[in-house]
């Protein structure tokens, strides 16, 4: 990912007439102005619409607890959610009463947006969480026992946005917190998706070569519209030829999870720095991608791969330009292992060796003596170390990411532990039909971001020619573990 350049080069930032797509909604006009000011042709296609929850019982239940003095702290996760929560409560209570009650608690704001809303309301912010403003920074701040506030035994309300952040909630509970969830709104597609479809067409036809994502939720909405119109595969192919700009780490993780690599990310996760960084780097990055594509074109000629026009390639699983670019930029695609997977001739008979590192590797056993299994899975540096060491030790043709197929159990709303000699233990088991209500919608970037980071770090540590394999539990397998509460032969 491109690194930010120094402020001394800010004057040279210019898109040079490139067409730039942004999926920003609330700040669409401001985004267009910034792009145009830096020499870009702005195409802003709103991809989201914030809708207050139809039923606000959760918000009013929170108000009852707040006014009764049974809330010790409130964590405000988003600016929009903070505004909506107050506006909902104002349908029943005067603002002065709401502000007064909130001000009596420890007020934690995740980043500048909720800070601004709270200050505009006249609510003093006790803790402003530093960048990059993720839930991990919230925990770091609270673990330091700021201003005498102690997590253990406290009752904390969490203003939620979109789906609940299960890892964050579990970590709070693990610290002895009684959590009061306060969901106040959800996201949906715009009522008019025509501008969004026009933007996708500009990307597919190669007119728009710079694409900006300023919110992780935008990614799923864009891909949803693409899929509904049969454009998902060609869009992913086209994005590989674009400069994809991400507002910050969470957004980049979601992009990666959806098969899209972010080319740049600003030092500060704000729209202004994002546009500045894109204007500085996009022309250079596009030039490099074009050069890689040209190199790939020569490779295609030696393999007698016939190029097809875009109109014939739409709907196919990746066009020839994408394949060539990938081959030039990612040597592992032509490795012995990948050739064997494609059933191409190789210089050795393929043999699949399925063996966990702990069964034979002394280095792993020593590490596991110090670090619990689940903690190891959640530590990207240790995951990379174990994965790379195992591959090097036996000289494998591919590395297998150290992970576990049940890591998604926690985001789904279950407890997960690994007892020595017992294997995984899932609590509480999913035994009755009404228990299905416990299942939570999973925000992958928020809840399993450590897996994406482990993939990035492992990929960076492996030799360029060595493929990296990941794995996941199929729905039936996951259901079996959740129902049985662990491993079972029944």
What does this structure look like?
This protein is an alpha/beta fold. It has 3 domains: 7-48 and 190-328, Rossmann fold, CATH 3.40.50.10090; 51-188, Rossmann fold; 357-484, TIM Barrel (Alpha-Beta Barrel), CATH 3.20.20. Helices cover 44% and strands 13% of the residues. It contains 21 helices and 15 strands. The protein has helices at residues 28-37, 57-67, 79-89, 95-103, 112-121, 135-143, 166-174, 194-204, 216-228, 232-239, 249-257, 271-302, 310-313, 320-329, 336-341, 362-368, 373-377, 380-394, 444-447, 449-461, 475-484; strands at residues 19-22, 41-44, 49-52, 73-76, 106-109, 127-128, 155-160, 178-183, 185-188, 208-213, 243-246, 399-400, 415-419, 423-427, 468-469. A 5-stranded parallel beta sheet has the order 6-5-4-7-8, sandwiched between helices. The protein has a 4-stranded parallel beta sheet with strand order 2-1-10-11, with helices on both faces. Strand 5 (106-109), helix 5 and strand 6 form a beta-alpha-beta unit. It is globular and about 75 Å long. The protein starts with 18 loop residues before the first strand and ends in a 6-residue tail after the last helix. Residues 2-10 and 296-328 have low confidence and may be disordered.
């Amino acid at each position: 990912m491109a690194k930010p350049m120094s402020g001394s080069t800010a004057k040279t930032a210019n898109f040079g007439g490139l067409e730039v797509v942004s999926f920003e909604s609330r700040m669409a006009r401001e985004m267009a102005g910034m792009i145009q000011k830096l020499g870009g042709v702005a195409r802003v296609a709103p991809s989201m619409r914030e809708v207050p929850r139809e039923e606000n019982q959760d918000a009013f239940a929170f108000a009852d607890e707040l006014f009764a003095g049974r809330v010790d702290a409130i964590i405000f996760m988003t600016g929009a959610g903070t505004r909506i929560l107050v506006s909902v409560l104002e349908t029943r209570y005067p603002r002065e009463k709401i502000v007064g009650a909130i001000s009596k608690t420890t007020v934690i704001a995740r980043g500048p947006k909720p800070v601004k809303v709270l200050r505009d309301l006249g609510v003093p912010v006790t803790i402003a969480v530093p960048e990059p403003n993720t839930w991990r920074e919230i925990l770091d701040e609270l673990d330091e026992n700021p201003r005498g506030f102690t997590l253990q035994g406290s009752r904390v309300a969490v203003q939620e946005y979109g789906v609940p952040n299960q890892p964050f909630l579990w970590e709070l509970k693990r610290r002895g917190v009684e959590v009061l969830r306060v969901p106040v709104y959800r996201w949906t597609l715009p009522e008019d998706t025509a501008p969004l479809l026009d933007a996708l067409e500009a990307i597919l036809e190669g007119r728009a070569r710079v694409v900006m994502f300023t919110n992780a939720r935008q990614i799923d909405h864009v891909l949803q519209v693409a899929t509904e119109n049969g454009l998902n595969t060609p869009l992913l192919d086209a994005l590989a030829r674009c400069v994809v700009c991400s507002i910050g780490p969470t957004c980049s993780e979601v992009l990666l999870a959806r098969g899209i690599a972010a080319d740049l990310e600003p030092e500060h996760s704000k729209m202004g720095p994002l546009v500045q960084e894109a204007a500085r780097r996009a022309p250079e990055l596009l030039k490099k991608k074009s050069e890689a594509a040209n190199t790939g074109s020569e490779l295609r000629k030696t393999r007698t791969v016939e190029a097809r026009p875009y109109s014939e390639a739409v709907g196919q699983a990746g066009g020839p330009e994408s394949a060539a670019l990938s081959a030039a930029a990612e040597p592992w695609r032509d490795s012995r292992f990948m050739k064997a997977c494609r059933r191409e001739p190789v210089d050795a008979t393929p043999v699949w060796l399925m063996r966990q590192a702990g069964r034979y590797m002394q280095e792993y056993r020593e590490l596991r003596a110090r670090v619990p299994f689940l903690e190891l899975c959640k530590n990207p540096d240790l995951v990379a170390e174990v994965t790379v060491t195992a591959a090097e030790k036996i000289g494998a043709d591919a590395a297998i990411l150290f992970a576990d197929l049940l890591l998604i159990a926690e985001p789904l709303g279950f407890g997960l532990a690994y007892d020595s000699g017992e294997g995984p233990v899932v609590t509480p088991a999913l035994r009755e039909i009404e228990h299905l209500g416990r299942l939570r919608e999973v925000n992958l970037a928020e809840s399993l971001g450590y897996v994406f980071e482990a993939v990035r770090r492992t990929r960076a540590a492996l030799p360029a020619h060595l493929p990296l394999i990941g794995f996941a539990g199929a729905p039936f397998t996951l259901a079996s573990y959740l129902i049985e509460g662990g491993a079972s032969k029944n």
